Write a sequence for this structure.
């Protein structure tokens, strides 16, 4: 759902004293996106075993949350919308429950039932006119996280209204990145990065013994770094409309839909969230996009351990209270 632009920048230096740490990286397409998985370890075999295990974990999660796979539990929940509850694995139940908690604290700016809009707006260059108000209203009427009914005792999920859909485009890659990190850490990787097309989690340090540096792309030129963040044992997630947007009547509409209205957001080019958990960062980046600049920053300033950087459609940079940036690497 999102075109995310985050760049992990590394400058070679001497390895840490007493350790011949090496960087091992694999780039692979998973969940329809580009994943870059890095393990830093003195033993290449240990590193590659961990990377492959991380890939397997991401693939497993994709099978669990995919709405394109007719055999997934997510697809079964959607197919039974308005009919009956569906029992799901605890992992999926808990993921949906956490997503609903984000919906509550954002007053619906984040809503996994947004997926009913997936056929209305196209950001692939094929749209030539705005959809009618009636079409948007009809699809938007099926969006309401209050109608996602969770039964903890039976471990079931029920979409109350027929035609409702859930989707994990605004939380799934962050969750997958976190789970891959956990698997790799459990296999002895104390330093690494999982970058899921901009949903990035880094732990430990780079092969030089320094914090990883993440470059936030310039909205006018994605190959240029606008500002730098030093990251260590944290996640950085960026939602951006750099390439996926439409223009009607000189108004730029981002590919992120406001679930409260059914219309694309305006006024923001990108949102970057920095916090410990990439799943939460993923959800919050979308939420801030929907809330807008002022409300979004005010919201983030209320959350402990969370910071954000916003680039407006006028290329202004807005940040939360405690975020510090570096102009140079």
């Amino acid at each position: 759902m999102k075109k995310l632009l985050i760049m992990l920048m590394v400058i070679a230096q001497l390895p840490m004293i007493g350790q011949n740490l090496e960087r091992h990286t694999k780039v692979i397409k998973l969940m329809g996106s580009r994943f870059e998985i890095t393990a830093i370890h003195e033993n290449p075999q240990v590193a590659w075993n961990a990377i492959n295990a991380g890939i397997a974990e991401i693939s497993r999660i994709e099978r669990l949350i995919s709405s394109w796979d007719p055999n997934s539990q997510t697809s079964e929940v959607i197919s039974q919308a308005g009919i009956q509850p569906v029992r799901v694995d605890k992992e999926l139940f808990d993921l949906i429950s956490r997503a609903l908690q984000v919906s509550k604290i954002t007053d619906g700016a984040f809503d996994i039932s947004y997926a009913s809009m997936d056929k209305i707006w196209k950001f692939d260059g094929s749209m030539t006119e705005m959809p009618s108000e009636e079409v948007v209203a009809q699809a938007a009427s099926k969006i309401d996280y209050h109608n996602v009914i969770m039964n903890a005792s039976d471990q079931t999920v029920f979409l109350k209204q027929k035609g409702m859909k859930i989707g994990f485009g605004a939380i799934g890659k962050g969750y997958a990145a976190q789970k891959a990190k956990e698997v790799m850490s459990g296999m002895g990787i104390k330093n690494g990065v999982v970058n899921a097309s901009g949903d990035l989690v880094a732990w430990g340090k780079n092969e030089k013994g320094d914090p990883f540096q993440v470059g936030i792309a310039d909205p006018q030129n994605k190959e240029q770094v606008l500002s730098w963040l030093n990251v260590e044992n944290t996640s950085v997630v960026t939602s951006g409309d750099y390439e996926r947007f439409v223009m009607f009547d000189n108004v730029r509409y981002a590919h992120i839909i406001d679930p409260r209205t059914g219309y694309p957001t305006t006024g923001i080019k990108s949102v970057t969230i920095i916090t410990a958990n990439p799943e939460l960062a993923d959800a919050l980046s979308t939420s801030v996009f929907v809330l807008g600049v002022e409300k979004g920053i005010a919201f983030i300033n209320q959350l402990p351990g969370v910071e954000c950087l916003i680039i407006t459609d006028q290329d202004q940079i807005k940040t939360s209270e405690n975020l510090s940036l570096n102009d140079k690497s």
